[in-house]
Amino acid sequence: MRPPLDLTLYVITDTRVARGRDQVELLRAAIRGGATMVQLRDKELPTRDQYELGRRLRELTRAARVALIVNDRVDLAMAIDADGVHLGQDDLPPRVARTLLGHGRIVGVSAGNPAEFELVRREGADYIGTGPFAATGTKADAGGAIGPAGLRALREITNLPMVAIGGIGPANAVAAMATGANGVAVISAVLGADDPERAAAELRRIVDASRRGR
């Protein structure tokens, strides 16, 4: 049985942010701290290295009952038996990815404005990733920050689960959640922390408290 879609604390891999540390062990610590989803996103790694990292993450997430998502690469998601993919506006259409992956897999789509949301509306998705919420250095083509107003604009036109992404940490997670997001997606705030378990636990407390306060 596949793990559930739970966007509460969605942690994304990045070799540069890991600073030479073993990402699987960093993610293991993050899951102990409360991470609910993991995304394999390491575009600078050769495909073989992405595959090997993905295989190890598959073992970790399967044991922890946490969903493993692959960024962009439907072929890689199929090769490691991931739980789904996260697609950008220029990737395969969601309906095609769903056909290739088969039933029961998760398909997420990035949307930073109402125009980009048209792809989600037309093709279908299980959740949307919305941002960048704030300035971020981990995605060169992320575009300008859309802030709370941008997230609210998308929240108002869809009931789909929505995860806020981009430059999110303890200082602004409450503001991100106040837009109606279902959770936050992070890289540096957890993988770049000296203690990923503690960093994940802090963010998880903030997100959980924000939802309870709605």
Give me the secondary-structure topology.
Blueprint: E1 9-12, H1 15-18, H2 23-33, E2 37-40, H3 47-64, E3 67-71, H4 74-79, E4 84-87, H5 94-101, E5 106-110, H6 114-123, E6 127-130, H7 147-155, E7 162-165, H8 173-177, E8 183-186, H9 188-191, H10 196-212
Q: What can you tell me about this protein's structure?
A:
- This protein has 214 residues and is of the alpha/beta class.
- It has one domain: Alpha-Beta Barrel (TIM Barrel).
- 43% of the residues lie in helices and 16% in strands.
- The chain is built from ten helices and eight strands.
- The chain has helices spanning 15-18, 23-33, 47-64, 74-79, 94-101, 114-123, 147-155, 173-177, 188-191, 196-212, and strands at 9-12, 37-40, 67-71, 84-87, 106-110, 127-130, 162-165, 183-186.
- It has an eight-stranded parallel beta barrel, surrounded by six helices.
- Strand 7, helix 8 (173-177) and strand 8 (183-186) form a beta-alpha-beta unit.
- Helix 2 packs parallel to helix 3 (47-64).
- It is globular, with a radius of gyration of 16 Å.
- The model has no long low-confidence stretch (mean pLDDT 93).
